């Protein structure tokens, strides 16, 4: 499911970032999604994470936080691209 998020980064940065936040919250506070706000994908991730060992949850959280940093860097480049002044 995380690989699916990674593949969606190029298409929908904001949506992927939001879903990444949901996944991270699921790692820290399982069972927090309600029926009104959760999607099938969120429910599935939450059910999977609940079955993981603590070490696996830690690795998953690290991977999700890394993905979130990557998304933030992409969004930063989109809204405030760095200028290349080396040619002047």
UniProtKB/TrEMBL annotation:
Domain of life: Eukaryota
InterPro entries in the cross-refs: BAG2 (IPR037689)
GO MF term (any one): protein-folding chaperone binding
GO biological process terms held by the UniProt record: protein stabilization
Protein name: Uncharacterized protein
Source organism: Daphnia galeata
Lineage, uppermost ranks: Eukaryota, Metazoa, Ecdysozoa, Arthropoda, Crustacea
């Amino acid at each position: 499911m995380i690989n699916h998020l990674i593949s969606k980064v190029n298409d929908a940065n904001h949506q992927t970032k939001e879903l990444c936040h949901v996944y991270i919250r699921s790692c820290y506070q399982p069972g927090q999604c309600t029926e009104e706000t959760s999607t099938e994908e969120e429910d599935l991730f939450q059910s999977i994470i609940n079955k993981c060992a603590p070490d696996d949850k830690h690795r998953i959280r690290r991977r999700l936080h890394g993905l979130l940093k990557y998304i933030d860097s992409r969004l930063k480049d989109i809204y405030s691209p760095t200028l290349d002044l080396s040619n002047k």
